[in-house]
Amino acid sequence: MARVGGFERAPRILVGLSGGGDSVALTLLLRRWVAARGGDLLAVAVDHGLRPESAAEAAAVGAAMARLGVPHRVMRWEGDKPSSGLQAAARSARRRLLELACAEAGCLHLALAHNRDDQAETLLLRLSRGSGIDGLAGMAASGTAGLVRVIRPCLEFSHERLLATCRAAGVGWVEDPSNRNPRFARARLRAVGDLLAGEGLSVDRLADTARRAARARAALDHATAALLARAASLHPEGWIRLDPVALADAPEEIGLRALTRCLTVVGGDEHPPRDAAVERLYGGMCDSVTVGRASFPGCTLAGCRIAPRRGGVVIAREATAVAGPQQATPGERLWWDRRFIVIPSADRTAPVTVAALGAAGWARLVADNPDVRGHDAPALVRPTLPALWSDGVVVAVPSLGFRRAGEPPGDVVRFSPALPLAGPAFPVVSARGGII
Ligand SMILES: Nc1ncnc2c1ncn2[C@@H]1O[C@H](COP(=O)(O)OP(=O)(O)OP(=O)(O)O)[C@@H](O)[C@H]1O
């Protein structure tokens, strides 16, 4: 737990409990760890509804949890199920439901029971796909997903050892039939792994490779963070000013990583853009330093608009890629455009719509309120700002400090992308204990 560290004084942890031996063992271990700190543990099972017996299994696991005094909740994956890519769809639905359960229970930490064998398997999969150093680092012991921190405290322990933990506690578990179903990629891979084991490609070796790659990646991340501290300034309206000279002076790998991170933060996408596209952009920016500014006219990539401006390069959200309108309830948190936390003032009497200000919205705002013009966000950023609308009229743009006459104070807009510019992300806890 120290390795996946960063807990509040009385930790509230949600464990993803499939009912398999790994997650039952993790629940047993966490139950003790949390109790010793006066915290709370909640076990959540996602019932994918893919097998007729899954509901009964979840209920049986719930009964076992009741005997252990661990609160247990079942969440169902509703809706149509795809006929291909079923396992991937189930995994993403499961993660979404577990994150939702965390938000509802006010838990910052989602514990998953991935173990050393899973890590080796992940590595094998990534090796077979020609992964770079990021992929070879395998699954991280801690990371973020949306607004929760995902922790994998069992990553160093073997499946066998976790089963032994359950046996020692006298608690049973459910065998997951999908693990033996060759229809699924992971199950296929497991079979291949068994074959490779005969060639000396042991789980230990693979897990060790992942550990070394993770250390190498940490060193690269450190250098990238140092470069970003010199080269980038992040603005609360969700844009970055980048110094291409500092970028061009850095080793190429570090420069590329820094640029990728900027695009990910501003574009709001958790998945980095394609390497080749970032390399082209990086080349163009470096040329603008050596050949001259005119050689880099700017471009769009990964939901961002990248444009040379006085004092460096501006990376802004691409106006046409911004999320559509979303209704927001007074006092309730909304994550808009995967980049902004928006909480309309609790003093509002009706829901408002959160949508981009847009070029027309900006023009109208400036015409009616000439004083907002002084704001120093670059022109290409302004249309992308989150605005609160009601009946087709902008009632507030908190990023600009604008509020229409008669509107209540207290609307909150905070830039909060899925990934931070550097270092790990930690969600913020509101005064009421919920994640904001
Ligand atoms: N149905 C479920 N309900 C709740 N938690 C689950 C469920 N299935 C899996 N988990 C959690 O996720 C962990 C990993 O599960 P699994 O090995 O099936 O991998 P995965 O979620 O498909 O992710 P990956 O493919 O990255 O390994 C489990 O140990 C458990 O903590």
Automatic annotation (TrEMBL):
Residue span(s) of domain tRNA(Ile)-lysidine/2-thiocytidine synthase N-terminal: 13-191
Record's keyword terms, sorted: ATP-binding, Cytoplasm, Ligase, Nucleotide-binding, tRNA processing
InterPro entries, per database record: Rossmann-like_a/b/a_fold, TilS/TtcA_N, tRNA_Ile_lys_synt, tRNA_Ile_lys_synt_N
Location of this chain's protein in the cell: Cytoplasm
CC per GO annotation: cytoplasm
Its EC number(s): 6.3.4.19
Enzyme class: ligase
Biological process annotations from GO: tRNA modification
CDD domains found in the cross-reference section: TilS_N (cd01992)
Positions that bind ATP: S18, G19, G20, G21, D22, S23
Annotated catalysed reactions: cytidine(34) in tRNA(Ile2) + L-lysine + ATP = lysidine(34) in tRNA(Ile2) + AMP + diphosphate + H(+)
UniProt keyword annotation of Transferase present: no
GO molecular function terms listed in the Swiss-Prot or TrEMBL record: ATP binding; tRNA(Ile)-lysidine synthase activity
PANTHER family, sorted: TRNA(ILE)-LYSIDINE SYNTHASE-RELATED (PTHR43033)
Domain notes from UniProt: The N-terminal region contains the highly conserved SGGXDS motif, predicted to be a P-loop motif involved in ATP binding.
The family this protein is said to belong to: Belongs to the tRNA(Ile)-lysidine synthase family.
HAMAP family: tRNA_Ile_lys_synt
Functional note: Ligates lysine onto the cytidine present at position 34 of the AUA codon-specific tRNA(Ile) that contains the anticodon CAU, in an ATP-dependent manner. Cytidine is converted to lysidine, thus changing the amino acid specificity of the tRNA from methionine to isoleucine.
Protein name as catalogued: tRNA(Ile)-lysidine synthase
Lineage: Bacteria, Pseudomonadati, Pseudomonadota, Alphaproteobacteria, Rhodospirillales
